[in-house]
Amino acid sequence: MNSRGNQGSDVWKTDYMRNLYRRHVQGALVRSGASLIMWLFALGSFWAGAIQINHFRGISASVAYLILINPPTLWILKRTTQINSFKYISLLITILEIIGYTAIIYFLGGIQSAYLIALYCALITYVGIVGTRRLPFVVASFCSICFSLIVVLEQFGFLPSQHLISHYYCPWETQLAILSAAIGLLFVTAFIASHTANLLKRNREKLRQQNADLVFTNERLQKEIAERERVENEYLDSSKKAEKKLIELAAAEATAAAEKKKAEELEALNQQLRASEQQLRTSEQQLKAANQKLEAKEQALQESQTQLMEKLAQVERFNKAMVGRELTMIKLKEEINSLLEEMGKPKKY
After folding, report:
1. Can you state the percent helix, strand and coil of the chain, rounding each to 5?
2. Is 262 exposed, middle or buried (0-12, 13-18, 19+ CB in 10 A)?
3. Average of pLDDT values for 14-41?
4. Three-point CA angle 167, 41, 44, nearest 5°
5. Which residue, 60, 120, 67, is CA-closest to 52?
6. pTM > 0.70
7. Which of 106, 211, 236, 335 is the most buried (most CB within 10 A)?
């Protein structure tokens, strides 16, 4: 369990630092792009004669500084493995960025360019959104210190004046008022950024909680769906089994009914067979009786035939006797006729 917890913590730490590094890469790209845009505006102002060569050189150096601090700082961040060290290095990068913006403000007139504290405000707003709640106030404090230093050091001659307008004079009281207003604006921006970040954090936490609730609800629904599918599958299986049993019972009933019908048909056939056998016996008896009658008739016929043969034999004997007598009579008549012819008398027959 401990090894799994440590593995989960290491994975979370790695993902967290990877996200922080990706955020710094995006910030470096935004910072470089914004610095180049400011340099292009400075170049246009220099060509238009609004600023002098010393101003343009200072702005160019400041922009180059803001761009060149990105590779080494990102290289260090990528090789940092501790979260606290990562946070301190991130704060150092923010301070270096404040120094670069302060240099741009200085080379554009210092207190004359108090409107450029908008650069500070943009940075405070950005770190307020992506950082902790107190980080905007820390950044606002560094911005106030840097802006106050260039005003004070320029006022006491430690820094050469970079006034855009020749013979510009601003009373010390006015500078303090401008400085106080600028610092107040920075802290107001920090408060707004911190409050906005807090609201965003709360909303993010609510969304994360809602997302967790949705994930939990989704998992529960998935479990319920799986349980329902399991119950439905069991019900379907039981239904299929019941249906199969019903089919088997229906088939058995149909088989029984068919066998019963066959048995009834067989019984009917047996009855018909018995009736046919009875009829056959009756026919045999009748046939026997007819045969007996026929035998009697045959016997009588034989007797009649015998008698007939005897009568035919008698008739033949009688016929032979009659034919012989007739032939004798004919012969005698012929002899008589021939004798009469010899005597010259006419034939008598």
Report:
1. 90, 0, 10
2. exposed
3. 86
4. 75
5. 60
6. no
7. 106
